[in-house]
Amino acid sequence: MDLTWLGHACFRARGREGIVLTDPPDPKSGRAIPKTAADLVTISHDDPKHASLRSVGGEPVVLRGPGEYEVQEILVTGIGTFRDDESGRLRGRNTVYAIRLDDLVICHLGGLGHALPAADLERLGDVDVVLVPIGGGEFDLSPAKAAEVIHQLEPKVVVPMSYDPDAQKKDSSFERLLHELGVKDLTPVAKLSVTRSSLPDNIQVVALDSRARI
Fold first, then answer.
1. What pLDDT score does 70 carry?
2. Mean confidence (pLDDT) of the chain
3. Dist. CA 191–CA 84, nearest whole Å
4. Which residue, among 136, 110, 137, 135, has the nearest Cα to 124 in the 3D structure?
């Protein structure tokens, strides 16, 4: 499975079973991505930076909420969550997706704004790769809370998202997350290529370069 970060919360996951695109942004939102074909699109919440099909090619199946889905042998579990820690009162609802592609489970947290309850963790099951928002905004997961969610899920690979890769100062949310996880400086890579057999034994943080082109 190859994973490419197209910016903000948008990733392209390509496997034998198809291509999944997560949270494609509206080009007018300031988060434009290249025209990208997909078989399956997941949308975590209704925000222009997360929920536009303008840059999506092909005829994908589009998932917009909780449920159990199967698309071209790609299995998806959508869990209803919130974008804040007040049951959605401030920012509304969010869907966390567990996507099984090429015998790997990728968990896209969307705009999650709180730690996950035990029932949600049980439904998500074992997670291999987690895509975690660390934007540092008022309602985003703080680095400490993001680290808490990561430890809840116990993935093998952590990929930060929803942050500005060009603004990595010493006190940035990215650097603070690395500190929370006990990780030193990371060099961004163009894509993550992983198989079941190549998963690390211990948690690994991977910084992807959102400027990579597909």
1. 97
2. 93
3. 30
4. 110
* pTM (2 d.p.): 0.95
d(CA 171, CA 59): 42
Q: Which amino acid is at 130?
A: V
Determine phi and psi for 101, rounding to 5 degrees: -135, 125
**Residue 101 and residue 123: Cα distance in Å, rounded?**
17
Which of 208, 196, 213, 203 is CA-nearest to residue 16? 196
Confidence band (pLDDT; 50, 70, 90) for 10?
very high
d(CA 36, CA 214): 8
What six digits make up the tokens of 78?
């959508």
Q: Which of 208, 205, 207, 206 is nearest to 180 (CA)?
A: 205
Q: Which amino acid is at 81?
A: T
pLDDT digits (tens, 9 = 90+) for 21-47: 999 999 988 888 999 999 999 999 999
